[in-house]
Amino acid sequence: MTNTVVTILHEGDAEQYWNLRIEALKEAPDAFLTTYEEAVQRENPVDQTAERLSDENNITFGAFTDEGLVGVTTLQFSDKRKEKHKAFLLAMYVKPQYQNRGIAKQLIFKAIQTARRQGEVEQIHLSVVSTNNAAIHLYESIGFKMYATEPRAIKTDKGYLDEHLMVLSL
């Protein structure tokens, strides 16, 4: 079994993150609002990624193995005073060959631990496509509870996808 280290990504990780993000958009297009086509049309995407990785309202975690970056997720904090008690888990992706090895769980636990240390965060929210049963099971196993379903949340070339909205109370 390969050792995995989960850490916070910084500007210097931008190129690796960008490459994994592009893979994610190809491999799991229904899991993200951004399309592959939209992403690759950006000007200076690595520079934009570096800027996002240095944004204090977003903390992006990366899972590294001997082969490099294999998984990511972002914890987003609100800059609005009335929403300081909430954080949002976004952009979760683990390379297919590394799925079912506990890497996604490690990423989420690191995000939860970070949110707890932040002090003001009382709950973490996420949304997940209603047909992504593996992700839903993972989130539920950690303690996330579904509180609503947004019908037709995402429109694709193949039709509409519903999203489950989930929350974890800290």
From TrEMBL:
Gene3D superfamilies in the record: 3.40.630.30
Annotated InterPro entries: Acyl_CoA_acyltransferase, GNAT_dom
UniProt domain N-acetyltransferase: residue ranges: 4-167
One Pfam family this sequence matches: Acetyltransf_1
The organism's place on the tree of life at top rank: Bacteria
Transmembrane segments: none
Coiled-coil regions listed: none
PANTHER family assigned to the protein according to its UniProt record, in alphabetical order: L-2,4-DIAMINOBUTYRIC ACID ACETYLTRANSFERASE, N-ACETYLTRANSFERASE
The protein, known as: GNAT family N-acetyltransferase
Protein source organism: Salinibacillus aidingensis
